Amino acid sequence: MVGSVTQFIREVRQELKKVTWPTREELTGSTTVVIVTTLLMAIFIGTVDFFLSLLIRVLIR
Length: 61
Fold this sequence. Notes:
- The chain has 61 residues and is mainly α.
- The chain is built from two helices and no strands.
């Protein structure tokens, strides 16, 4: 059991050495895209929700 855990950790370290990590610029760019997209979607969904609830209120009255 302990041997298999040790072997697993060794293999994980070997695989992590093969990873091509993003540069700071790539990471910043990707993060910016995610945040802006999330904000735009939140605004869009909030706006649609507001107008749909307004429509439902008008239809109920």
